[in-house]
Amino acid sequence: MNPQLAEVVEAAPGKLAAVQSLEELDRVEAELLGRRSVLAQLQKAIGSLPPEERPALGRDLQQARATLVELVETRRRALEREIADRVATADRVDVTLDAFRLPLGSRHLIYQTIEEVCEIFVSLGYVVAEGPEAEIAWYNFDALNTPPTHPARAETDTLYIDFGDPATEPLLRTHTSPMQIRWMEAHRPPVAVVVPGKVYRADTIDASHLPVFHQVEGLMVGEDVRFSDLKGTLAHFARSFFGPQTQVRFRPSFFPFTEPSAELDVSCFACRGGEPGCRVCGGEGWLELLGCGMVDPNVFDAVGYDPKSVTGFAFGMGVERLAMVRHSIDDIRLFVDNDLRFLRQFP
Ligand SMILES: [Zn+2]
Which domain, by its residues, includes 15? Predict the structure, then answer.
């Protein structure tokens, strides 16, 4: 046999035995049989040999190729078995081991409540939107018909962010209502949107106040939207959330951005109306739930809607309040204490 070929064939078993992966085997195979191999070079050179020497080299090449292919394939089969064995050993299950349990958490009651509220409104055709928590005064106050003299704008109530430029007055939104403005600026009527999210107030922490809490805002605007639509929608919401027996009551109220405005109360689900000493309603028979009203025409002016052609209603509810009323939770701080004994009651 051609000495160069003999050398390659002789060295091949050692090289192949050292191979430990299929990728490595592919490299060695290319080295032995590929375009740059000794075999390929001799194959190319065969044309330049004298005619009488060609058949001998041709035979040698054929024989060497067959031997090398056989060696490579034998190693490949062995390697595949080795790899399968390695995997099987690594994956072997020890059935005597104790089960490995991954403790699974659950969504916080506040987020469960937000989800449930949004689902009720989505079933009525509303869309869910979120807005920025850092706002400018225009969206949080001015466009919502809240004049510069309004007490809510004072630093004792609102958390302002000091970037050194009082003209833009950045602040942490005190309600989810700014998203009413942002949504109407970006959409033509009719609109039906609910906005869940965090809101911020300069409040001192006590059993019923946190400086950060959650609201769900709602807005419906279109032609001929009436107060009766507001009542029907919110009564449907109250019954979906607290149960079909729930009664609702609207009391006159005031908000700068709605006219007329109302507070919605629901009948106490625990005593069903005025049991003296009821620990849920304190014997009142009613539970305060949310604020609502017909969108003030000045708000429509601020977003470029024509108050003569569209009307609408808006409502805003505190999520912590909803959860506290429904589950008789008497201290809002429980939501942020991260006490598992509390959280585990709402899996
Ligand atoms: Zn009651």
Answer: 3-90
